[in-house]
Structure formats: structure tokens, C-alpha cells
Amino acid sequence: MDIRLGNADLARYPFLNEAAEYMSQTYFNLDDLNLPELQHIVERASNRIRNEIIHGKPDYALERHEVEILTFLVGILIIKAINSDNLTKKHSLCEALRAEKFLVQDLKTQGELANKKLLVFKVFKELLKMDVLPSLKYQLMFEVKVTDYLKRSHLFHEQEWKLINRLVHDGRVFLDPDETVRLIRSELANLLFERIRQMNPSHIPTTIREHANILRSILPVAPRRLDNAPSAFPPCINHALDQMAAGENLPHSARVMLATYMLAIGKNIEEIVSLFENAPDYNERISRYQVEHLAGERGSHVRYLVPSCAKLRNDGLCFATSQCEGLINPVQFGRAAKSYSKKASVG
Amino acid sequence: MILTKTGEDLHLLKIAFREFYFNQGNMVEEPPKIRNREFGLMGFDGVMKRHLTFSSLGGLIASLIFETPSDVFASNAQYDFPTLPISEKGWRGAELIFDIDLKDLDMKCIRSHSYARCLSCSSSYVSGSQESCPKCGSNNIAESMLPCDRCVNGLKNEVLKLHRFLTSDIGISPEMIGTYFSGNNGFHVHVQDESFNDLDSRARADLAAYILGVGISADAIGVTKDIRNDFRIRFPIGGLDHGWRKRLSDRLGISVSSQKRLSNLIKDLGGLEQFRKRVAEITRDMGVRIDSQVTTDVHRVFRLPGTLNGKSGLTKILCTDLNSFDPFDESCQLSNREVTVRVTIPKLKLRLKGERFNLNEEYVRVPMFLAVYLISKGLAHAVRLDPGTGRFIVPASTP
Predict the structure, then answer these.
(1) Is the pLDDT of residue A100 over 60?
(2) pLDDT the model gives residue A260
(3) Domains of chain A, residue spans
(4) Which of A182-186, B153-157, B221-225 is predicted least confidently?
(5) Quick check: A233 contacting B, CB < 8 Å?
(6) Domain total of chain B
(7) Considering only CB atoms, which chain B residues are within 8 Å of A165?
(8) Domain limit, last residue, from B258, B286, B314
(9) Does residue B270 belong to any structural domain of this protein?
């Protein structure tokens, strides 16, 4: 099925090849970005990245396609000029979240606008090599192949994503629009990350360089680590901290593990919130609320316990070493290590 | 514990296995893309040589005749460089394989046909509750089992259950499913649909959990926690028509139109937590008893179809019709030529290759296929007549 994209579609999905084709047809030159009439685009892209750095949230505003495609391109150029892997990951995730919102909207459209779904199927097929079909049996449900589902669902640690908790029939998994798009979020972010990483512009225009320098100055200096030596933490916690330091987008369950563990060993809210600064979707207000909630200072006022080793194993968050032998909860790790070193020093 | 063979036992087993590969080498199945497979050959000493390759089936069979291994394995994975260490092999996908083993079926009859052999005093006895040798008290025991017809039927039921999951839920065409008797106490189900080959361990673990019936959440059928009323029921959009949702709702006797009934059921059970436990019990009971570690491991070597199983002397063989398949007949491929063995267990009854045998602790002439079966299970020893004296030469390791 050959689906022609309208220009308005390119505004929502500026990462598609058609957007690049559109740009090549306009005889656009990188140095055009130094022109005063394009400064509002450069400003727009720069503000979008500033928002991502400070609030960890994407900008969902949608302008006409010329503006969106150029904003997307300028954004990438700024990211290339800043040259930070963590920021590239953050930007890729924000662009993926932005696309996710439009994909869900398009999947939910019905009636005359329903052909928008075809566009979404094209995005899935061409970008992610994944067939998504509207279910003939269930309205507003979509079918993906079991194999396509399994390749992606293991990235989620929540029980609801386990195949057994899904409606499965004849090699197909049935998903609603939100779930269908959620399934590919991190893949889309990785794809965008790789595209940005491999992009090699001939040069960076002066105006882009200037904006990049300003934005670089507001980047978090370095990933925060707590005072403890890494070896004092159990391997599951170290792994999560390493991922966080690398700017990876930790799943919710890993963040709960990290926060509850830090609370259990006596770290204060400030220290724990600052741990998440490097997360691609970091938002200080939300992080603080969630950590306070886990600490029992908000909501139900129940202090959450550190998930057990069995739960972490089940969630794919366990990276046990020989030092973990006999432990049933990560909080025992420090105590076990202490008692071991005490015994060793006595012996 | 692997029973390593020595002396006359080893001599006889090697002759039987070599004869098989020499005369019936055509039974050995060539795995697709043989050059990209890692092979493993296990010796009768229990030592496995891994990271081997063969460029053709002929080369493999020649090696089997020459080396006469007790067991032959090939990777389900294809590699760029099969001989290198795992991390350098260059993984290029692996067939999806399921293993159903008798040990996972909790068959009640198993104890009655399990045998123990004391490795200290070499006495054999029917395994009871005792963990040490009744003769010398040693704990150095090797156990073996002769599956009965009931065991085989139990295994077949599990395989059929697995087939239903694979075809109706996972959508695999029946022609793409190869079912093999392992040659001892189980079945291997090979999925030949290549679209499953690139699933990694984690994806396979999720699929294995689906088939085992592990990890179900009551939310899947619309029963969720509610702070005020303990639970709340809102049936999922897709209803309860298929897969586990259907299995569960059928077992619970509910449908999307019987919300009240489900609500009463939860209350009768004692609330949401009890209901969750009940749901988990049902799915574990209805799931297939596969060995999930086997399915999840993408670097494993599996017994090659058409080769002999060193634990029995039976062949791993394709079952074209599972219902009529008789492992004690069709997979028994060794010769009928008679040899002498000394049976070490009293009152042993078994059926093999269409014949019934009643054996006792005695020196007896039996067909080669039976001799190998008993020796492999540790229930007999090979003996040879001394041409000079006309007496039996009893292996030094036996009293």
C-alpha cells in the first residue's frame, strides 16, 4: 500500500524520509539559518531544547509544516553542536514522546479522518519494520504480531506488559491506541538517537553555535553520585545508577527500586531527587513528589519498602553477583558486606 | 549423576553405537545451515567436546562412526563463527525449542519404576523413600528411571497442550512444529517458523511464562484493586474471548455478561487477595510443564534428531503422529543380535521394540537393543565368555 504524505503530516512526523525530501526540494542551505528571517525558527528550536533540559518535557505545540520541519532540523544541529550524549538521548526521547502523542491521536481518529491511521501504519512499517493492523473484531483495538510484541514488551517491567496478561489470539496481540504507541516509544527514541548520532552536517552555522554555547552552560555539570563508594551498593542499584549516569531512560520500576533503596539507607529527599537529574525525562517537581510519596510524606502516607530480590528478578532488574548469595532484599547487601568484612577482619 | 561406563559395559556400548552410526547413519538429521551450527559430542566418560563444526552431514556421520560419542548435540543457534567462544561466535538467531521432561510432571507412578544404583557397592534396588543404599548405607547413589506407558501418556498430553498453545494462541502453523521424542524421558518441540528465531532470551522468557501459565494478573480479566470496596470489576475491551482470558473465564464459569457471578465468586473466596491466588493456581495448573530454562537459553546445544541418547540407547526421533507414537518401539533402533548381560535388579518387567521382557538378577542372553538400554540405565552389566575357560568374564568394577 503506497500512502502519500500530505505536508501537514510532515509537521507531526518530521523525522520521516519524506521530510528530508521536502527539504531538499526547497534548496535550503545550512547558512540560511544565519538569515534574520529564520531567527524565529532557531529561537524556537533553542527554546524547545532549553525546556527539555530544565523540565525534561517535550514541546507539543504544532505549527505549520515548514516551521516544524525546520525546527526539528535546527534542533538536531544544536544538539550536534553541543555534542553531549546525555542531551542527545534526552532530546531523542522528547521527540519520541512528541511523536507518540500525535501517533495516538491519529490512531484514535474515526470517520472521515480515519485514513490518518494509514499514515500511522506507514510510520510503524517503514520506520520500525512492524505491522500494525486495525482489529476487525474490536473497535479501536489494533493487532500486532506476537513476535513483534515480544521483541519490544520485555523493555517494560510492569506485569500488564507480560504476554500472559494480554489478549492473544492466532499469533496476534490486541492493543488499544495508547498501548500500541507506548510499545514503540523507546525504540523510536533509540532510532532518533542513532539518526542524530550518525548525522554529519558539513558545518554548523554561526547562529546555531551561539545558541549551543548558551544551552551548554545550563546543562547539569556532571551526573550526581552519592557519597558511598559504588561497591557499597548492591549490583542492582549500581546498574541503575550507571544507567542513570549514561542518560538512559530507566523504567518506572527501576526508579522505585532506586528511590526506596536510598530512603532505606538513610539518604534524604534532596539527595535522592538530585540522583534523577540526569534522566532524559527529568522534571524536578514530579521527581520530588514521587520520592516524597515513596517516603510516605504524601498521598497514602505509607512508606514504601525496597522491592524484594525475587520481585527485582521478575522485573529484570537483578544483576546478582556472588556477594548477593542468600539475600532476599537488596537492603541486606550493605549489612551482609559489613558483617562479612567484620568477620574477615576478625579472622 | 552421569553413570560413566568402563570395561565390558563401555566396550559393548561403543560397539552398539558404532554399528548404529555405520548402518543407520541416514537417520541422522542434517540441521539447516549445518556450517553455522555449533556441535557438541559427549564421550562415554561424560566429557563434552563443544565448539565443534561440520561442513556436511557426511563429515558429521564419519566423525560419529570414528569417535563413537554417547550423545550428539547441535546448537539451535546459527553463528558466524561456531568454533569461537560464545561471546565471539556472532549469534544469528536460534530456533525456538520447548522441552517437556518427565521429571517436571510429578507423575505418581515414577517411584514404582525408578531404580537406584549404589556407586559404592554396586547394588541396585527400586528407589523408595530411602536416600542411602540399604546394603552399605552409602549416599553415593545414581538414579535411573524406566518410563511406563502412563508416563508416556502424561508426556503426550503435555505435548498436545503445548501444540494447542502454539497454534491457537501464538499462531504457529502445525506444519511448522516438529515434535521429537528425546530418546529418554521427554519430548522436544521444535518451532521451524523462522520469524521466532531472532527473539532474545528475555522475549523467550516472556513466551515461556505465557505457556507455563506464570505471572497472570487478575487485572487481565478486569478485576482490579479498589480502595473502598476491596475490588472492582471492569471487563477488558477485548472481552474474554481468547487465550488465557478465555481459559480462565471458562474455568471460573464466567463471561462478560456475568459480572455479578464473578463478584460473588471473589467474595466467596474471601476477597481480592484470595481470588488472585486462585487465579494463579488455575493458570499454573492449566499451563504446560515446559522447562523454561531450555526455551530461554539461546546458546544451548540440543540433542541432534536421529542420534542415540546415551542414557537409554534409544534414538531421538520425529513423531509424525503423536497419538499412535510408541517410543519403546519406534525409537528403538539398535540391532537384535544377542549378547550376554548380567541383570543387577530383581523382577524387572519392560517392553521394548515390540517384545515384552521379564528379567531377574541373572546372566541372560538378550538382544543388543535391550542390553544397551539396561546398561545405560545402570541395571545390567555386559559380560563376555572367556574363549579359553568358557566362563563369563565379569567386569572388574562389579562384585
Answers:
(1) yes
(2) 92
(3) 7-113+187-213, 131-183, 230-346
(4) A182-186
(5) no
(6) 2
(7) 215-217, 219-220, 244
(8) B286
(9) yes
